[in-house]
Amino acid sequence: MSHKERRKNRTDRLFELVLLLQSKPNMSSRALAEYFDVSRRTIFRDLRVLGESGVPLTYADSGGYEILEGYQLPPLMLTAREASTLLIGIEFMKLQSDLSLRKNADHVELKIVAVLPPETRHHIDDLKARIVLDPYWLNTAQPGDEEEGRWHELSHAVTDRRTVTMEYFVPSRDEVTRRTVDPLALIYFTDHWNLIAFDHLRKEVRNFRLDRIESMRVASMQRFTPPDDFDLPTYIEQLGATEEQMVEVFFDREVAGYAKRTVPAKIQKEVAKDGGVVVRFGFENLEYLAQWLLRFGVHAEAKSPKELRKLVKKEAAAVAARYK
Description:
This protein is α+β, with helices and mostly antiparallel strands. It has helices spanning about 5-25, 30-35, 40-50, 80-95, 100-115, 120-130, 150-160, 230-245, 255-260, 285-295, 305-320; strands at about 55-60, 65, 160-170, 175-190, 190-200, 205-210, 215-225, 245-250, 265-275, 275-285, 300-305.
């Protein structure tokens, strides 16, 4: 490793050391050495350099190092790779149906780009012209005015532990129901945001799609205590196990390759059949899958479950009715 590379690695480590001590104060020299995979002697040298450069380090009574509250880092310093990673996240947020999320993503991008070094900024500008996440996504879900800001409202309700009352559309019954819920988490899977919340009506934790909330109100005073036995990773695992259904779909030879690359799930089994292939996989949102299958036209056929076949038939009939 050249002297220049060693100097760059140390500079990166010093910067990360400041960030680490600000987010996790009272870390011992041993813990810091293990984190950076260097010797304690190297950590002591780094701490001395930080102190000499004006970083207000102190040694806490608990036996660890910390930075005095109020210390501010200089303007944002990002490598081209780090800036590119942020760009991908920002571009994803620009595809959300909630207009406020898209606006915020634009504002964040402007702030980040404004403080980047010229060389990194040129790299990002060039990269933006060559990265496309999904050119059709924005056309699939245009929200009404009432949806704008909903994600942010619910995110605050989750962190503030405030009860939410909402009018929620239930497709299986084709009706709107009034629900009072205690929001526990927001998760994104398949193609939409979901609110995981304790439902006062059902007396259990349920999953609610944000795009099915007709209207909502966050309580200004009423707060809740999350259930003692609720664990988000466990719930998500159980959610997939209980709601996921095994699906079998036939694709003819003309589209089989593309279909297998783009199927929105992990293929568990595939069998060559009738000049094509039958693939088997688990999936939760059959409505979404029915719409996805229609893009293949006559080159695909839902084999099971029966509910999926009915949904595809219903969607196809609705499309055909448009042309009568």
